[in-house]
Amino acid sequence: MGMPSKITSKGQITVPKAVRKRLNLKAGDSVEFVEVNGEFIFKPRNLRAGDLAGILGPPPSGETLTIDQMNEAIGQAASEDDRRITREWRKGRK
């Protein structure tokens, strides 16, 4: 069952109280609108980094990385993400 909401002249919407409660949303939390098959899904983005601690478990081989190796891996991932975002932005501008 859907819950109605209105868009203001500034493009803002009010998330119904029942939805905020169900998704544990509070003032200042971020949300994301994701398009899937022509429809949009509203997703909370209120996880904190600490909530994800241990989610992946230990590395497969039990090997440990140095801080420099971790920083290098983070830099590579960020660079790849930047390239993907730029590609998608350019594709959307055509």
Overview of the molecule:
This protein has one domain (17-48, 55-93). The protein is built from 2 helices and 2 strands, in the order αββα. By secondary structure, it is of the alpha+beta class. A hairpin with a 2-residue loop joins β1 and β2. The chain starts with 16 loop residues before the first helix and ends with a helix. The mean pLDDT is 83. The chain has helices at 17-22, 67-93, and strands spanning 31-36, 39-44. The longest helix has 27 residues, at 67-93.
Count of separate structural domains:
1
Q: Helical region count?
A: 2
Shape: extended
Rg value: 19 Å
Give the amount of beta strand, in percent. Answer: 5-15%
DSSP summary, beta strand count: 2
Strand order of the largest sheet: 1-2
Instruction: Detail the poorly predicted runs.
Output: none
Structural class: alpha+beta
Q: Kindly, what is the distance between the CA atoms of the first and last residues, rounded to a whole number of angstroms?
A: 37 Å
Q: In a few lines, what is going on in this structure?
A:
This protein is an alpha+beta fold and 94 residues long. The chain has helices at residues 17-22, 67-93; strands spanning 31-36, 39-44.
